[in-house]
Write a structure and sequence with these properties.
The complex is a heterodimer of chains A (497) and B (158). Chain A is α/β, with parallel strands linked by helices and 497 residues long. Chain A is built from 12 helices and 27 strands. In chain A, strands 1, 2, 5, 6, 7, 8 and 19 form a 7-stranded mixed β-sheet that branches. In chain A, strands 10-17-11-12-13 form a 5-stranded parallel β-sheet. The chains are: A alpha/beta (497), B alpha+beta (158).
């Protein structure tokens, strides 16, 4: 950056990138906690993010105890934002974030540059597109992501479809199946490549079954037909490896194919800032404060990991704001973090590491639908959480508070504090043979398989799978989150939540 | 605000048939989406005549009874707006209406074009199809600047 630009740099304590449910909640919480030199930057011309086009109800059940539409839910936040007078920019896109937390914003009046103490990433996510799905065939008009169709209908008052096929059973696709039907379109069917639906059960009921729209599992679109406008699609069954089964092709005439095949956190800015991403969540690797690998850069909401509910996005952003407040006040040094690993049956976790001294909210998803299961979070032989569930599905994000398991935070460097490395040494002395061997000896039937799976080299470098980048030189002290089926003889008590 | 002047929709008054004594429902009250097995013991509409299994909370049983005796839904839709900053306003129902009336309700709402400004929470149709549910705006649509000027000019002239 040259001399001239440097003169125009403004100082902001916290800059929030994105004015959706995460960014709005973070801004409000920061303000309420007395952090006033903040700025929220939104790319669209109005605040609210994707909530603006989610006109269906179901928002706010967890937070406000009533079922609101997306615009109403956003309104609860934007009204407060205006009441407080929190500074925000709309029609302004963040162009760059540097590791030094200098943020460049493109506005209609030109570039603005901000030197910040903290940046909150709240950019949300993108939809997986046709290109990302790699469907062979033509590229006619009439192939939209569910969110694009939603924007046409709910923001621009345009009807994009008459005869519709939906690929993917994500929640937005299901919501759009209902919306299109009520607006007079004919939705032939929803096709899902996986053997289980990816949307929530309630949406399968109230968006598909209510309207008699069939859902075909283990099916996918294998060809797109048409030249200028879509004329039809070929649909095939897939085998257990998700490969199309020859001979099962079926042609469906339609003018619109709607894709609802997942969301991808939008992290181009984060990458440029040097933030390390988790290949499983496609969001930043964060600690219990939701701080990324770049000190002072935080992430919450769908940019961090894809949520099911806006309510949880807002809550996560508030927890983040609390951490930012203490970060600004205490300027805490980068303490050592213990990695959190997604074990058997778990797809990913957020956060991916923790200092262990403060309570935090652990979020994760399972890899496949299961019934009568036990979820265990443990650090070596110390069980941090044990929960039973009647039913778990990948569509539902699980969240549990985890209590501090090392000595609680003590201010101003008192000697009582036990660092993770001290804890590790102590733990190692106390059980020299290690948990895994002992566990195998103690209850062989239950632990054998698991122990076998986990007999990994102690110095396993986890950088290759991106789970934790700073861990390569030390013994594998890690928190493991795993899920297992409860055997019939273990019974199923009343611990279900 | 408009009062819907049409005949009340009666498609929702669907009585439970004896053929449907046992059904598995998906609760739509919250994201848990409990699978609830509903079994009718006596064939009446009272809660005591039913047995429900699988709900994680009491709201689920309440939903299941409602679903088995008189299934209801709310809908969200939109209506075109004239003279506004946005071309449409999003709408929803204040109370659930019989499931069988949902399509007709959507068609009825689509007959209307609204005039800006509209405020979030405004009742735009009262007692839709006589079903006891109002249609409210869920977003504020301000009047476009040009439309405001045109109105002012007209007032001055008259």
């Amino acid at each position: 950056m040259n001399e001239k630009n440097m003169q125009n740099v403004r100082n902001v304590d916290v800059l929030i990138v994105g004015g959706g449910p995460a960014g709005l909640a973070a801004a409000l919480r920061l303000w309420e906690k007395g952090i006033r030199n903040i700025l929220l930057v939104e790319r669209e011309k109005r605040l609210g993010g994707i909530l603006r086009q989610c006109i269906h109800d179901g928002f706010g059940l967890a937070r406000f105890g009533e079922s609101l539409s997306g615009p109403e839910y956003a309104g609860r936040f934007t009204e407060k934002l205006e009441e407080y007078g929190i500074p925000f920019l709309t029609d302004a896109a963040v162009y760059q974030i540097t590791p030094e937390k200098i943020v460049t914003v493109v506005t209609k009046k030109g570039l603005l540059t901000f030197q910040t103490k903290a940046v909150i990433l709240a950019m949300g996510c993108r939809e997986r597109t046709q290109g990302a799905l790699a469907i062979p065939g033509e590229r006619p008009a009439g192939v939209f992501t569910a969110g694009t169709a939603q924007a046409y209908m709910n923001l621009y008052n345009r009807m994009p479809a008459r005869e519709v096929v939906i690929l993917g059973s994500g929640d937005i696709g299901l919501i759009m199946a209902r919306r299109l039907t009520l607006e007079g379109a004919h939705v032939h069917a929803v096709f899902e490549i996986q053997p289980y639906p990816s949307g929530l059960a309630r949406n399968l009921q109230q968006c598909l079954r209510d309207y008699g729209i069939p859902l075909y599992l283990s099916h996918t679109v294998t060809e797109i037909h048409g030249s200028s406008r879509l004329e039809g699609v070929t649909v095939s069954e897939v085998d257990e490896h998700l490969r199309p089964v020859p001979g099962t092709e079926q042609y469906i005439a339609c003018d619109t194919l709607i894709l609802s095949a997942g969301l991808i956190p939008e992290n181009e800015l984060s990458l440029e800032a040097g933030v390390i991403l988790d290949p499983r969540t496609k969001g930043a690797v964060v600690d219990e404060h939701l701080q990324t690998s770049v000190p002072g850069i935080y992430a919450a909401g769908n940019v961090l990991h894809v949520h099911d509910l806006a309510d949880y996005v807002s809550e996560e952003a508030e927890l983040l704001a609390d951490a930012v407040v203490s970060g600004l006040q205490e300027n805490d040094a980068q303490e050592e973090k213990i990695p959190i690993r997604a074990g058997e049956g778990i797809h990913h976790t957020v956060p991916q590491k923790t200092g262990g001294r403060e309570p935090f909210l652990l979020s994760f998803r399972v890899t496949r639908p299961m019934q009568d299961v036990e979820i265990v979070v443990r650090l070596a032989d110390q069980v941090l959480l044990r929960k039973r569930r009647k039913r778990v599905v990948p569509a539902e994000m699980l969240r549990f508070p985890i209590q501090p398991f090392l000595n609680a935070v003590q201010k101003s460097g008192e000697a009582e504090v036990e660092s993770p490395s001290e804890y590790r040494n102590r733990a190692a002395q106390e059980s020299p043979s290690g948990y895994r061997n002992r566990a195998a000896q103690e209850s062989p039937s239950r632990h054998r398989n698991r122990a076998a799976q986990e007999s990994i080299p102690e110095n396993r470098n986890r950088t290759e799978d991106g789970m934790c980048e700073e861990n390569s030189d030390r013994p594998a002290q890690e928190i493991v989150v795993e899920i297992r089926k409860i055997m019939p003889d273990e019974g199923f008590g009343k611990e279900v939540e | 605000m408009t009062v819907s002047g049409r005949e009340p929709c009666t498609k929702g008054n669907r009585l439970q048939t004896t053929a449907e004594r046992v059904r598995t429902l998906t609760c739509i009250i919250c994201p848990n989406g409990c699978e609830i097995r509903a079994e009718n013991k006596a064939g009446e509409k009272e809660a005591a005549d039913w047995r429900f299994e699988g709900a994680l909370c009491p709201r689920g049983e309440k939903y299941a009874l409602q679903e088995m005796t008189d299934p209801r839904r709310t809908i969200a839709t939109s209506a075109a707006v004239r003279g506004g900053e946005e071309p449409l306003v999003s709408l929803r129902l204040t109370e659930p209406i019989p499931l069988g009336c949902v399509r007709e309700a959507a068609e009825e709402i689509h007959r209307y074009t609204l005039i800006a400004p509209i405020h979030a929470g405004d009742v735009v149709i009262r007692n839709l199809l006589g079903l006891g549910s109002d249609v409210i705006a869920t977003r504020t649509v301000k009047a476009a600047v040009k439309a405001v000027q045109a109105c002012t000019v007209r007032e001055e002239m008259s």
